[in-house]
Design the sequence.
């Protein structure tokens, strides 16, 4: 064999070896290695997120408050989009061409290869029509959602609502992706982790026309969604609905608590709104309308309004005085009625008054003298004030009472440092800050805090953390709800305060056959009609409900706040309103305090 032939064989052998290497490599890639097989499969495979149904929400009696209804999102994968009939597409989805183009552009900016939501929350009725035509639009597919539905248009502030996640939400929790939904406030926010459930994934095979042909690998790689946990709230739906009716055409708030447990029976912030307004594709427009409303219906006055408590605060001030021995049950202070100084009394009454009469008559001079005696027992006014302030804080003012309420505020409890800044250290005393003695000045409390004060008095000196969730399916509520909080006032000192509250119940907030205790309040605001407030608990023995009502621009606490609270108490305890009190109910239901020309003030005491 000559050299030429030898070289030819060598060259042929090299080609054969190279070809053999390529064949082995191709065999390995196509047969042995599943990576590229999976890549090829992905061209006909669609992963669809399975969104879990959020947990249901019930009232304390098992009445369904919040449930779910099915909706659909339409997604687009920009890389897969082919030319299509945009006119038909927009008509099917009830969107404009501009909306369509902007949506696709936004999706392309996010990713050309990953699906993005183009149209959210399509109703089942509209989706049924769309589904028949969806095969004509390559690159578009749908996924199932659930939206919240409400059995009654009630408790919007307490329940909260669900909205689309923000980038901040995504940064905080890797569970969320763009387009997901999250509880924004209320119970929906506080219990988001329990209510949301866990997302799943379903893998489908699709044909060239984007139509689902079946499950991939018979569903063996699907991950089922886990539905959220159901919650039972402490709310009484009937009482909540009744309270909201009574607050129609009014601004303010009411909170009712079961003293023996701390369970919130009703929580109203008025004006109220229908929670269904913030669901579905109309949510955005409705939210803007509510947000721009001058009456501020989205503002939760029950948890965020820092109202001066007015004379309802006098129960606290008198209790501190008794505990600190600044006064006794025999102590009497003179009152010159409307001519009293440095704080005038709102009306004339028997003088001098003791603590029971001071509460019954809501005597400002009695409370001012009590406050002065408390502060004066210490070496300095600042030291006496610190003692007084600590007691007030023990009652829950100036604190976050519970973690069960989203976005709640501490209120305003002025400090020694504040007065040092205003007046100068050592240059102020009880006289300087005397308005605190009657619940005015720099003092501000939320209705939740003051309802808790009513529960403390009902319990003779202790409370359980106010909360709004009673049970969680397959889980436990916070152990802190069972902890008994003592406020540092001996039980014996509550008897005269409660007796004064009992004696103050009269006129059109008296409930025949029911002995209960209450304290009115009228709050000076410097402009317009005063605000009215009322704290109460019932029955006097073994109380089952404690209530705090605050009605803005209602003149006196006796005019609207007290009748509303009395009607709620009667409704809750007796399940009906007595026939001789139906005229009071009618007046509360029909009164309109939002129109200054329709405010009716009846004869009665100024408190």
Sequence:
């Amino acid at each position: 064999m000559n050299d030429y032939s030898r070289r030819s064989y060598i060259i042929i052998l090299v080609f054969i070896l190279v070809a053999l290497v390529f064949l082995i490599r191709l065999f390995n890639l196509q047969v042995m290695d599943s990576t590229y097989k999976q890549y090829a499969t992905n061209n006909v495979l669609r992963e669809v997120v399975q969104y879990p149904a959020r947990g249901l929400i019930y009232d304390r009696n098992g009445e369904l408050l919040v449930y779910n209804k099915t909706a659909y999102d339409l997604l687009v994968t920009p890389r897969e989009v082919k030319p299509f009939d945009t006119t038909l597409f927009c008509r099917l989805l009830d969107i404009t061409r501009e909306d369509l183009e902007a949506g696709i552009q936004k999706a392309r900016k996010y990713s050309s290869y990953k699906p993005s939501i183009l149209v959210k929350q399509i109703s089942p009725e509209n989706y049924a029509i769309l589904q028949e035509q969806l095969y004509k639009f390559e690159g578009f597919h749908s996924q199932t959602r659930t939206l919240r539905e409400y059995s009654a248009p009630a408790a919007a502030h307490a329940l909260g609502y669900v909205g689309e996640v923000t980038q901040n939400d995504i940064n905080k929790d890797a569970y969320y992706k763009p387009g997901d939904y999250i509880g924004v406030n209320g119970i929906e926010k506080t219990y988001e982790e329990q209510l949301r459930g866990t997302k799943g994934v379903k893998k489908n095979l699709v044909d060239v026309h984007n139509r689902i042909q079946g499950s991939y690998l018979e569903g063996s790689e699907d991950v089922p969604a886990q539905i959220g946990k159901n919650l039972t709230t402490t709310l009484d739906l009937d009482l909540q609905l009744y309270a909201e009716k009574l607050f129609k055409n009014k601004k303010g708030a009411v909170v009712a608590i079961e003293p023996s447990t701390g369970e919130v029976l009703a929580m109203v912030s008025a004006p109220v709104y229908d929670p269904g307004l913030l669901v579905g594709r109309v949510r955005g427009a409705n939210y803007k309308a509510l947000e721009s409303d001058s009456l501020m219906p989205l503002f939760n006055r029950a948890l965020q309004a820092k109202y001066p408590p007015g004379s309802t605060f006098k129960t606290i001030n008198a209790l501190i005085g008794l505990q600190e021995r600044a006064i006794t049950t025999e102590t009497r202070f003179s009152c010159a009625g409307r001519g009293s100084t440095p704080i005038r009394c709102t009306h004339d009454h028997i003088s001098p008054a003791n603590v029971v009469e001071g509460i019954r008559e809501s005597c400002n001079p009695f409370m001012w003298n009590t406050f002065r005696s408390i502060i004066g027992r210490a070496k300095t006014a600042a030291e006496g004030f610190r003692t007084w302030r600590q007691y007030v804080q023990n009652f829950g003012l100036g604190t976050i009472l519970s973690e069960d309420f989203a976005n709640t505020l501490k209120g305003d409890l002025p400090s020694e440092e504040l007065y040092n800044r205003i007046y100068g250290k050592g240059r102020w005393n009880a006289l300087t800050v005397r308005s605190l003695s009657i619940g005015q000045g720099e003092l501000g409390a939320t209705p939740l805090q003051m309802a808790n004060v009513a529960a403390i008095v009902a319990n003779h000196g202790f409370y359980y953390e106010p909360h709004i969730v009673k049970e969680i399916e397959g889980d436990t509520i916070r152990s802190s709800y069972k902890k008994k909080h003592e406020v540092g006032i001996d039980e014996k000192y509550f008897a005269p305060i409660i007796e004064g509250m009992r004696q103050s119940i009269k006129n059109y907030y008296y409930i025949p056959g029911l002995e209960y205790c209450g304290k009115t309040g009228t709050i000076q605001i410097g402009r317009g009609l005063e605000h009215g407030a009322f704290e109460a608990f019932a029955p006097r023995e073994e109380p089952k409900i404690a209530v705090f009502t605050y009605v803005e621009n209602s003149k006196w606490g006796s005019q609207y706040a007290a009748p509303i609270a009395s009607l709620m108490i009667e409704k809750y305890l007796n399940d009906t309103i007595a026939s001789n009190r139906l005229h009071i109910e009618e007046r509360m239901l029909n009164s309109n305090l939002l129109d200054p020309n329709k405010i009716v003030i009846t004869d009665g005491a100024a408190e």
Remarks:
- The first strand starts at residue 45 and ends at 50.
- The two ends are 127 Å apart (CA to CA).
